[in-house]
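Run log, item B.
One chain of 457 residues. Sequence copied directly from the ordering sheet:
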Amino acid sequence: MDYDFIIVGAGPAGIFAALELSGLRPEKKILILEKGQDLEKRNCPKRDNGVCRKCNPCNILSGFAGSGAYSDGKLSLSPEVGGELPSVIGYENTLELIKQVDQIYLSFGADKKIYGVENPELMDKLRARAIKSNLKLIECPIRHLGTDESRKIYKKIEDRLLSQGVQLSFNNPVADLIIDNGEIKGVVADKIYNADKVIIATGREGSSWLSSMCEKYFIKKSIGPVDIGVRVEVRNEIMKEINESLYEGKFIYYTPTFDDKVRTFCQNPAGFVSVEYYDNLAVVNGHSYKSKKQKSKNTNFAILVSNYFTKPFQNPIEYGKFIAGLGNMLSGNKIIVQRYGDLKRGRRTTPERLFRNNIHPTLSDSLPGDLSLVLPYRVLLDIKEMIEALDTIVSGVSSDETLLYGVEVKFYSSRIQTNENFETSIKNLYVAGDGAGITRGLMQSSVNGIYIGRLFA
């Protein structure tokens, strides 16, 4: 089976690389290998009937469009958010490519509304309040696709790829690479596939596999931070000001005790807290729908602490799994939820205390518990200090009734070392997206794919 290009992974980076390649070089044979299912077959039983069947691989994370198909679908339109592309290809180049990719999403049906640009006076007020509390407000225009509309948009993209001759092979995970004398020759999946060039774009779900390939073939990588934290859930009334003007408030804080970097991430107005499974480990996430019929009374967002390690530490992904595993051990493979007031008082949240709350969990099968038995003391204190700082901007975030879910971990910490064209130390082997530690979101992942696709025009 001979191809000009093989793309491993059908997430945003992979499909946008294929979209660009097939448009610019229609004569080339392009194959995408994906361990998950076709988009139309990707159904999460838990979201349909409330029962998780622990699909392997997880249908929320794997399949065409990757986790983007089930995410909140936010396109961050600033180079300062969502990855490290500006450090590789330059700020202005990244900005221009974001504009171009944004137009592609619009052509496939993305909402034309942009949040974060309509109310400069409010931005001034929020920025001033943030500065007083030593918080940095990241100003980033956002286009919201929505979990429901994302699937429709990516289905149109899938149809376009097929019409342009791209071959898609689902339920076909890549087990190994074929490397000869320092040069990629193909991959091993259900059979051997030969290719002149291979692009690995596995996303966060495939970061562990990619890391193992780096170890096996001595592909150079650097150890990045480990992002560990919780998902916070409050009533919509508390977040109304930010929800209606910015959609997502992005804040960075350096904590007074340890000077650790803490950030807010992935805000979902009127959204739902959700669970994902990485190697059978339950980790928390969040999403929201575009349809007004699928709205909750709550807003959720993540608070993530960046943990930096030095030698001899080499396993950021395994460290994150270890912390998530502690939570799973205590909860029976579920997500723990705790009231902030209980956390401050050093006591476990009970079903009785949770029942009398004004805020009711949108993750109905989460288990009331005690996150202090899971998270390291340093991380826990960082989270508390961040919540108290945020309360000066959004009054009510530090309420006793605020819900914290754990553990949230981002498995993209190993940064694969590449040249300016994202080629690894193995000749003709390229990497892109979240799994390679280059990006952290839909937009920069898509841009990364477009950039690589244009290298061969």
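Observations after the first pass:
- Residues 111 and 145 are 6 Å apart (CA to CA).
- The chain is about 30% helix and 25% strand.
Flagged for discussion on Thursday.
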